[in-house]
Amino acid sequence: MKSKVFGTVLSLSLALSAFTVYHSESVVHAESLSSIKKKQQENEKKAKDSQSKLDENKKSQASLEAEVERLDKLTTATDEKIIQKQADIKETKEEIAQLKAEITVVQKRIDERDKLLKERVNSMYESGGAVSYLEVVLGSKDFGDFLDRVLALNMIAEQDRQLLEEQKKDKELLETKMASVEKKLSNLQNAMKDLQKLQKQLRAQMAEKDRLMASLQSEEEELHKEAHKIENEGAILKAQEEAFRAEQARAAAREKARKSSSGGSAPSMGPVSGNGLIIKPAAGAVTSGFGMRSSGMHEGIDIAQGGTVPIYAAADGTVIKSEYSSSYGNVVYISHSIGGQQWTTVYAHMSSRAVSGGSVSKGQFLGNMGNTGRSSGQHLHFELHKGPWNAGKTNAVNPAAYW
């Protein structure tokens, strides 16, 4: 009787224990899935914000391109005006040169005429005006000859006077033209200075627009990178959700198989082993630990060793991403369900990747240690995240504390 009661109590106790474990794991699973959903919602919000920033950037670029086009047209028109002004200035200079040559010729004629007239005046002054006429009278054959000589002298004097006046008028006319042309040249030169100043301002504005455009393009590039990063994170979160659900089913199956088997857990496929939550994924020394360093937070550990060094899965799990990235190089992300808790491991800078998806077992070969991506020297950058992976790496923990 006592034996029956004891058996009944034991059965109830085991059943209650099993229910408690199941309920506990279910709660943990629900919390992990809830965490993934929350991260996905946050990621969707970041994606919308990122797209909004990209749209604003494109609007700014479009507006700036229209302004640049306007300035291009204005600069071209200004350059054409400058070319025309340069041609006008050249033509005006040629006209001035021609006028100066004409003035020189006229001035020479005037000077020669002035010299001749001075000589005549001096001759008349030295001989005296009356004597000159007396000589004309005495030298005349008759009165008629006298009149002819007087008329001839008067005509020569009048012609000289008229010629001199005409020459002076010509000189005044040429000088007036010269002054007019020089004024025109001065105005053109001033206009040229104004245009050159405007051209300089326009080119300075264009340089500023080019700088702004380059800045916007650089910003756009960074926004695209950020958008890609967010998109990549979203894809990983989705894959993690699917992997976690699959891992739940596989973990339950493994636990059932373990209970039904007589032995312990199966040995790992690789030579690297450990007694903790996970195994050390590669042989070698830890050259850089988890935590802050001069370049910022290091969310994982670096394991380095020369030669061909295989890398193994740190625990049973599902490959959620296997890719090449500019930062991580060849990298593999694996989602794990251990004791109802979701974990994520990251294996970066590998020389090669032997897996592309699907489930993997603890100790399964993933690839070889390498130096790809932003890496200096052959090593494995290994990350452990308690929960789903995210770009901010807020779930990262020190892997060395778990193997």
From TrEMBL:
Gene3D superfamilies cross-referenced by the UniProt entry: 6.10.250.3150, Glucose Permease (Domain IIA)
Domain Peptidoglycan hydrolase PcsB coiled-coil: 103-177
InterPro entries: Cell_wall_metabolism_enzyme (IPR050570), Dup_hybrid_motif (IPR011055), M23ase_b-sheet_dom (IPR016047), PcsB_CC (IPR057309)
Signal peptide range in chain numbering: 1-23
Record-annotated M23ase beta-sheet core domain positions: 297-399
UniProt xrefs under Pfam families: CC_PcsB, Peptidase_M23
Biased composition (Basic and acidic residues): 39-59
Keywords of this entry: Signal
Compositional bias (Low complexity): 260-273
Disordered: region residues: 32-62, 247-273
One term of GO molecular function: metalloendopeptidase activity
UniProt protein name: Uncharacterized protein
Species annotation: Fictibacillus arsenicus
Taxonomic lineage from the root: Bacteria, Bacillati, Bacillota, Bacilli, Bacillales
